[in-house]
Amino acid sequence: MKAAEVRTFGVVGAGQMGSGIAQVAALAGLEVVLEDVAQAFVDRGVLAIEKSLERAVEKGKLSKDDGERARGRIRTTTSLADFKDCDFVVEAVTEDAALKREAFRELDAMLGARAVLASNTSSISITELAASTKRPDRFIGMHFFNPVPVMKLVELVRGHETSEATYTFTRDLSLRLGKDPCVSNDFPGFVSNRVLMPMINEAIFALHEGVADAPSIDKVMKLGMNHPMGPLELADFIGLDTCLAIMQVLEEGFGDSKYRPCPLLRKMVRAGYLGRKSGRGFYNYSD
After folding, report:
1. Is 287 contained in some domain?
2. pLDDT tens profile 149-161
3. Preceding amide of 261 cis, omega within 30
4. Whole-model pTM?
């Protein structure tokens, strides 16, 4: 099967990433099945898609008719059984290896023989996830970036058994979605988070040790290094729980103390200070 032949595109998880992936696929003309474990989560994801499409129409980036047609291509469910006719399925659930493996075992049992499975994981081993299925050759990492409708990059990650045909197919599908793919082999954190997360972690150490306050650390990186967001502001945007999970994957995967999560990061996650999504992180978003 070629990427141009994909008709039905499945997305497991209707959170911030999953809803964004579903929106991009629908805009590319694909029929989309969007799933989450509870109707409330599905409804929240659909609302985010509708608001995003409305903003695109208001800004003149999308016609009203095209927006309505894209929304009409998305159907929702709370059951993985509704993915049985999908040609390609991307998983975008919480960064928890056990949860992802269980979802893939269930999907693998019901999908057609030619269907490809992909994970949007930002750090977990693709080889490990693929091993929970009977199609490791048709399994690949497909790491989108937030916000998905805006960010052009998608990081494709080859597992140990990912076939050349699966990589080429997914690369072509990424282009069909309007993305610019790059390829990584299966190492902890891949390319993006192996480079990004230690920088964020070091910024948290600088705050923890009293080198400077949060606005000063972020200003240095924005004005001195020309970053669009400072590392602490970016951590709040990503979610401190996600940052911690990725650092733990890096520390365990490499067995190197340089990837040790900052104690302040651990403490803030325990306190429920997760960043923008909780209203409080290194900055206060309660207003």
Report:
1. no
2. 999 999 999 999 9
3. no
4. 0.90
